[in-house]
Design a protein that fits this description.
10 helices, TIM Barrel, single chain
Length: about 290
């Protein structure tokens, strides 16, 4: 039953922290796929892959990927898979890849909400160790504009449920996504939401315009304004200053960012604020535009 290669279809997306993980494609595309800034899954119609294909890929990994101790479920929202099938996938991973220490997946607020507390705990017991949740903003008007399909209040509830189940939570937020006019409100509200969720990891990315997306059209037609480097640094500062997590990592070291930062909260907060202030004064070099990427 083992194939000669993994059955990957289309563009494969994974978090930077899963660079060395086994990538097991269990769904195609994203179950939401409406966010105005995202072009990652526009070439795919959402589907859950069949059992035979998934098992074949697990068996392939069992032969050729014995030095990789983490596994990441792709595509965009594997948590949406019905519980019975998702448990079966985790059982097959444990049976055939016993050296895998942690399984991770992307999720959205809808897919988390569809799982009961008991189901989330069962997934943790079966090996699901981390969920990556795209928060983007804590401001409801911004979430509505980018068609995130949820509210800040729901993101708070669902994020806390993941933590309660004993699963690590990594969230992403987007600098610049609210545009120039609403930057301060977005930054402050996002910091407040992060403080309330208390995720294990925060990754702050800078919005980049992907051709063909609704956000690209909004930019071309004057409905959205890109912020410059200094404005984005100011937004990062306000967001970070408004974030009062009692633990966890706050990072802005993604390739899209102008100033890489990494802070263990709360002990590194003042040091990182001082670094951002130095960059705003022109005393710290920023990443040149040609080096920025998704």
């Amino acid at each position: 039953m083992t194939a000669d290669a993994m059955h990957y279809e289309g563009l494969i997306i994974r978090p930077p922290s899963e660079a060395n993980s086994i990538l097991l494609q269990v769904t195609l595309g994203c179950s939401h796929n409406k966010c105005t800034f995202c072009g990652s899954y526009k070439d795919k119609r959402f589907a859950i892959k069949d059992d035979d294909t998934i098992l074949s890929d697990i068996l392939f990994a069992s032969r050729y990927m014995k030095n990789q101790h983490r596994l990441f479920l792709i595509d965009g929202d594997a948590l949406i898979i019905p519980q019975r099938k998702l448990v079966w996938i985790l059982d097959m991973i444990r049976e055939h890849l016993p050296w895998v220490r942690r399984v991770g997946t992307y999720a959205n607020a809808k897919s988390i909400k569809m799982k009961t507390d008991e189901e989330l705990e069962e997934l943790r017991e079966k090996g699901l160790g981390i969920i990556y949740l795209g928060v983007e903003s804590g401001d409801n008007e911004t979430l509505k504009k980018v068609k995130k399909g949820t509210s800040a209040e729901n993101l708070l509830v669902q994020g806390r449920r993941v933590k309660k189940a004993g699963i690590k939570l990594s969230v992403t937020v987007l600098l610049g996504i609210a545009g120039r006019e609403n930057s301060s409100r977005h930054a402050h509200a996002t910091g407040q939401l992060l403080s309330a969720i208390e995720p294990d990891y925060v990754g702050a990315l800078t919005v980049m315009i992907i051709p063909g997306t609704p956000l690209a059209r909004d930019l071309a037609e004057g409905r959205f304004e890109l912020m410059n480097e200094r404005e984005l640094l100011g937004e990062l500062r306000e967001m970070f200053e408004s974030t009062n997590m009692t633990r966890g990592l706050f990072m802005a070291n993604h390739a899209s960012n102008y100033l890489p930062i990494k802070a263990r909260m709360p002990k590194d907060k003042e040091r990182v604020l001082a670094l951002i202030d130095a960059a705003l004064r022109g005393e710290v070099a920023l990443k040149p535009e040609w080096m920025r990427a998704l």
